[in-house]
Amino acid sequence: MPSGEQYEIKGSILYCLREGKEPSEWKEKGRKRRYTNEQRRIWQRLDAKQLEMIERSIFDLLGIIRPVIWIIVVKQDKIYRKHRETTWPPYYWALTYVQQRVVHHVQATRGAYERALFIMDENVTLKTAAQFDEYLSLRERINGTAPWPVDFNRYLIDIPAFTKSHLHSALQIADVIAHAAWRRVTNRDRFNWLGRVEALLAKHWRTGTYENAGLTFIQ
Fold first, then answer.
1. pLDDT of 20-78, one tens digit each?
2. CA 14/CA 70 separation, integer angstroms
3. What is the distance between the alpha carbons of residues 211 and 203, in angstroms, rounded to a whole number?
4. CA dist., res. 133 & res. 211, Å (int)
5. What's the rounded Cα separation, in Å, for the pair 88 and 145?
6. Which helix (H) or strand (E) holds 124?
7. What is the reported pTM?
8. What is the Cα–Cα distance from 84 to 136, expressed in whole angstroms?
9. pLDDT band at 147 (very low <50, low <70, confident <90, very high)
10. How far is CA 137 from CA 57, 88, 119, 154, in A?
């Protein structure tokens, strides 16, 4: 029985193959994953035209469903040089920012009493009860410094729900967008992926642009 990982459309894999390169997921440590060889065999059956068709289909889908997108880019080294031991973990900082923006969006578009579920890709950063407790505590401290703090208990399920990316198409779309942002900030966005989703980035209520709204740098 094939696993979902064999067929998962990760942005990094698709981009590398579109460039004619071998994805890093198939090298070194990636070789130890049980599904890597089969994943490689499946992807390598596709020719350049088919890869381009998959890419186009993903962005066509985004154009149809038109989600509101927030991207947070964290410059970790700059943060640690600036704040040192007084800074918050960049992951917690970014995640809090996303949740704040989602709450504001739900409140503005659906009403003050609408509830929303926050679904995250499975990761190792928040896998224990102790890590969750630490995150929830720091989230309140970070939230308290915002110009417009939010009530997480009122608008969101307090603890985010986790799921595996290869089992949830919406998370795979998020993976593609995240990879597009990484390509742009590292000046390696040859196929202009981020440019194809810029119209979907959340706009600032006052300026009407996505700077410091849909696209935010924490530095």
1. 999 998 887 767 778 888 889 999 999 999 999 999 999 999 999 999 999 999 877 77
2. 22
3. 8
4. 32
5. 12
6. none
7. 0.86
8. 21
9. confident
10. 41, 11, 19, 17
